Amino acid sequence: MSNDNAAPSSSSAAANGSADSAAPRRNSKRPKYSKFTQQELPACKPILTPGWVISAFLLVSVIFVPIGVASLFASRDVVEVVDRYETACIPAQNRTNKVAYIQSSANKICVRTLTVPKRMKAPIYIYYELDNFYQNHRRYVKSRNDMQLRSNSSQDDTSNCKPEDLINGTAIVPCGLIAWSLFNDTYSFSRGNESLNVNKKDISWKSDRDHKFGDNVFPKNFQSGGLKGGGSLNESKPLSEQEDLIVWMRTAALPTFRKLYGRIEVDLNRGDTINVTLGNHYNTYSFNGKKRLVLSTTSWLGGKNDFLGIAYLTVGGLCLFLAVCFIIVYLVKPRRLGDPSYLSWNRSPGGR
Amino acid sequence: MSGGGGWERIRSTRGGRLSRETSLTGRTARTVRLGRVQPQAPGYRTIFCNDREANLPVRFKGNSISTTKYNFLTFLPKGLFEQFRRVANCYFLLISILSMTPISPVNPVTNVVPLSLVLFVSLIKEAFEDWKRLQNDMVINNNPVDVLHDQVWETIPWKKLQVGDIVRIKQDGFFPADLLFLASTNADGVCYIETSNLDGETNLKIRKAVERTWDYLTPEKAVEFKGEVQCEQPNNSLYTFTGNLIIENQTLPLSPNQLLLRGCSLRNTEYIVGAVIFTGHETKVMMNSMNVPSKRSTLERKLDKLILALFGTLFGMCLVGAIGSGIFISSDYYYLELQRGVGLEFNPSSRFSVAILTLFTLITLYSTIIPISLYVSIEMIKFIQCAQFINKDLHMYHVETNTPALARTSNLNEELGQVEYIFSDKTGTLTRNLMEFFKCSIGGEVYGTGFTEIERGGAQRMGAKIQEAQRSPHAVHEKGFNFDDSRIMRGAWRNESNPDVCKEFFRCLAICHTVLTEGDESPDKITYQAASPDEAALVTAAKNFGFFFYRRTPTMIYVRESHVEKMGNITDVPYEILNVLEFNSTRKRQSVVCRYADGRLVLYCKGADTVIYERLADGNNELKKITREHLEQFGSAGLRTLCLAYKDLNPETYESWNEKFIQAKSSLRDREKKLDEVAELIEKDLILIGATAIEDKLQEGVPACIETLAKAGIKIWVLTGDKMETAINIAYEHFVQGDQVEIARFMKEVVKEELKRCLEEAQHSMCTVSGPKLTLVIDGKCLMYALDPSLRVMLLNLSLNCSSVVCCRVSPLQKAQVTSLVKKGARKITLSIGDGANDVSMIQAAHIGVGISGMEGMQAVMASDFAIAQFRFLTDLLLVHGRWSYLRICKVITYFFYKNLTFTLTQFWFTFHTGFSGQRFYDDWFQSLYNVIFTALPVIIVGLFDKDVSAALSKKYPELYKEGIKNMFFKWRVVWTWAFFSVYQSLVFYHFVTISGTSGKNLSGRMFGLWDVSTMAFTCVVITVNLRLLMMCNSITRWHYISVGGSILAWFVFILIYSLLRENVYYVIYVLMGTFYFYLTIILVPIVALLGDFIYQGVERWFFPYDYQVVQEMHRNDPEDNSRAGLLEIGNRLTPQEERSYAIAQLPRELSKHTGFAFDSPGYESFFAAQLGVHAPQKAWDVARRASMRGKPKPSKKH
Fold first, then answer.
1. Minimal Cα–Cα distance from A229 to chain B, Å?
2. Nearest to A33 among B333, B394, B884 (CB)
3. 8-state DSSP, B177
4. Which positions does UniProt annotate for ATP binding (chain B) (predicted)?
């Protein structure tokens, strides 16, 4: 830029001449004073003095430790029962070839028994947890069509959905790999003889139901191809009511993820044994994925996750420790602020 | 010029000379014709003057000029082309194209939006600058000019002017095009022009019309003029012109002497009439306007390396991802349906192609690692720094000359903060170039009382007290004359022991010069137009001694001599000037042959002592010896000296010589050389008269400035044309602070041995602790040998061991060579400062060229990168602006590096969890707006406002500048530190957010999806990165708060709106904000991320503080710098001293080029011109005068 504006300015100055040099001297070129051009804008000049360092550390620890304790308590309050079942639910004789078993049409009902370690207050959330399942794979994430999901009028729009887009030339609704691979293990619970009702309503985010999945879009041609990827859908219910699908289609961030299956709306007492009748249909065996069933309560912070609490406590503790260290250093070898002997030219030649 | 009696006489004799003149012109005409048939001549143009129809078929270009780069149609294509010459933009164009293909994980907007925004901003800037140029052009094009139309002068705008038009230019008017000079109101068909816009020389030059056209002055006459001009095609040579004027079947040769160039202005002439020859872009001045070679700052070149390193990182990351993807891909992941007809991209059976394609995918994904907006941001910052800070700094505004500082390029701001070597011209830069006649030595006697500043300084050091002689009450002190000695003033010289020598001395001063007079012919009112202030000072001195030169005609010099024979007797004495032997830098002398009214023929000569002494007649060794002693004495007092000599000629010798001279003068090839040779023949056996000493006053504040700069670790080299003694004295005076000084001084031959010895000596003394400071003094001749490639290294080593270097008697080319020796050999950042044409080469050769503006011509300024009015402003320019710019640009660059690396690394960590598929972590628009909106503004604010210590402290502690010289803030160590914390922070962002995000949130137990997590992470990144900026600020203005707060706010506003519009992130932020988790994370993650930097900064400051930090602490309780009051007063109220110097500045003065006789010739001897083998043309002034010289002396006396 400079290069460019230098040349013409010189030539133009030469050409139009000293209009200003001929002008009277009174025509001052004195720049006007402004705080901006003289670079004297009022400014605060923070200096990271030892005092500031120590107080910052103390402040952080004072704030963080209580939050950490609170979060940790919240997390500890949560009662979580986890049952890994992908191997257990395959009959012993079939365990050499799990994939063949899961793809066969054998009866895959399996019963698991869980013991409640602590009293669990309703609502108790039922999750399934998959492992090594790349819902965030690039091919997978984009394999959906939001327009199609939302409105009836664009149900033939299957762009992005390949290879699960069309069957015999007609569009699959919902199309794409995500919907196609819908999780289809089923769980039903009983405590002794009393069967526990699983409420599958309202397990998805409301915004998804209301906006992303249309109430006039009905499944069509779904899972009717040769290869079934996962669960089927009730063709008489609109997508906005297919909450399992909605939950499934909010793709997870990591290859290990939990998804909400339903709620048990009665309290469970300590020591209760829960029988789970489990329809083990979903194939995670091809890629050695684990399957877990999780029962969990929640706190104000959410499900069981000690991470935040521990992080807060660790950082708070670390800051406290650092603050103490710095205080000790300060007491042992105080640093006089602005000691001219620190200036490089006052030290030995050669400098820092 | 009021037509005095002299003119009448000349006119009356014109008839007698006519025959001679025609023979002369006939000869030149022949040569012109010869020139035209030369095969290499590109042809000529024929112009029919005063006949628009006849010129029509040729279609000459119009006179409107356009300096714009673009027009309406070419703006877009040409502007875009310019932009894509930048590698970064090209890279992003490539990435954008790549992101349109299916292999891209990101929507094209990710890359297209930032690129288009950057291009948009750049194009707007270009358009704005072009618009200003256009307006400037329009003003020029619409200037009025009088053109002949139907026998009357009609005023039309410049742009309507056509080739062949007859125009009238009034006094002080500018020539609208290149004109053929036809007639002038002055007698003798001459006019005076000022060419300062062309070459910066402010002395007036004479142009003379061809005699045949003198009469076409009035419209009635001019309309009859129907000439045909045949001349060369337009070219850019300012000093050449050949052509013929064919008028009434008569062919008259034309020379540069008849050409009035566009851009010059008319002086001392009521008006002139001319015919337009070249118009618009074909004028010589326009053809000369070329781009100054653009310089890039060293920091920017280092930035390129950083960008390369980033490319390397990018490639490494992509390679890791690509290999991972090749390993990962497997048909076991049946839900990806990798079996049926899957493209190569994901085909498990061809892992290699998967890896290759993923490589490209990842390149588009990680493209953000290259900071696209970096260049445009830096450009904006630098532009504002120049336009608003440097150009408007009141500290660098010089009241007396009404000159603010001027940054002519905005590329080099930060380079100013790293300068280690300053090469300074002496005259006009360190000194004022206000020459005052101070002392003289006549016939072995020193005259003149008073002491120079250097003598005072020397005496002070020695502890002696100087007895200031009482000035006589009648002492004259005018501009150019600061001399007092009752022995010779007011005619008292007649009572001295050798009045005849005195007389010769004064006459030599009054006659031997090339000064023009201006104004009234009275001693008080006359002003002298001189090519150099030295000359004016000498003529002024002669005036004060009673030899008042008051009028010059082409052949005569009139001197009003008082007291020659006896007191009170004043006579006007005419001297006929027969020959003038020009001054130039090789001759270093000037001679005039004149004839007294009584027929006595004398050659007067003045010049540098070396050349004069070589040419003195034998004998009178006593005088020579004494005078030489005096010369040395003057030299050591820092005075500029000249030797005066004369020689009586006998008419026969002269006649025979003059024939040779005329022959040489009219020769076509090597005329200069031949003239020099002829001059040698007569300039011998001279008789020494004496010597003059002129004081060149030091500029204000120079010693303090030099001391400050020296403390800042900057080494100052003085490259001067002065004598060695003067130079050494300057060295003593200013550079050598300590007492122990050892000057390694060597000259001429045995340079190699000397160099070796000096180097050993120097190294030896360097080894001894606190050894003496060394100063190297080297003269031009010696330098010529020392710059030989074989010795160069040794010279460099020696000079780097010295704390200061003085090169004296160096030529402009050598100045440039020395500069580039240090620039290339030592790889240090160099700055050249100078004021004159002779400094142009070194200004262009150095990293940074600084021109002194205000007093002198424009040539140095035109070649420079920065222009300041005074040498002392270097302190502000370097220590304040340079240091701050360096600091700021370093911060901007490292911060850009950090924020992009951090952001991209979070993507990279995510890649590991997506089966290396290249899935994007963030939404397209997050990624595309990250650089251009969410993090763009604060860093610019830092680039503008950050300052570690105030301007006053920067100057109080010049040592702070060393941090820039050592490049402390942009070392690889610094970059690695930033990179380390980038990695740390990106790990924190990614892992803290993903790990904490995998459990149910809130009481509802619902889970987050990918976009929830990534939005959370992005929020943390934006907040942290902006807060990190605040952490590195030394001063936080409200603009910092506004921009940082604004950026974070912009993100929230954006996401709150955006999440209502887009499918994948629909409602995400509202969901997030409905959880406690969001708020806890938003507190935790930035603090954890910044903890590392905070500890690092705290520890660094506590245990290893930077110098600026210590200074900050020392002055932490100082009140806000209130230099404001002082600044407001600059230019409003003056101190008494300022008032005095202001008054002096207000005196009428000739602003002219320094051509100190000690050496140095103005002109176009640029370093580059010399390298290209371009011959430096002679001065236009010489052309004018030479033409006015008659071929033969008149046989008869004038009266």
1. 7
2. B394
3. S
4. 425-427, 535, 583, 606, 640, 720-722, 809, 815, 838-839
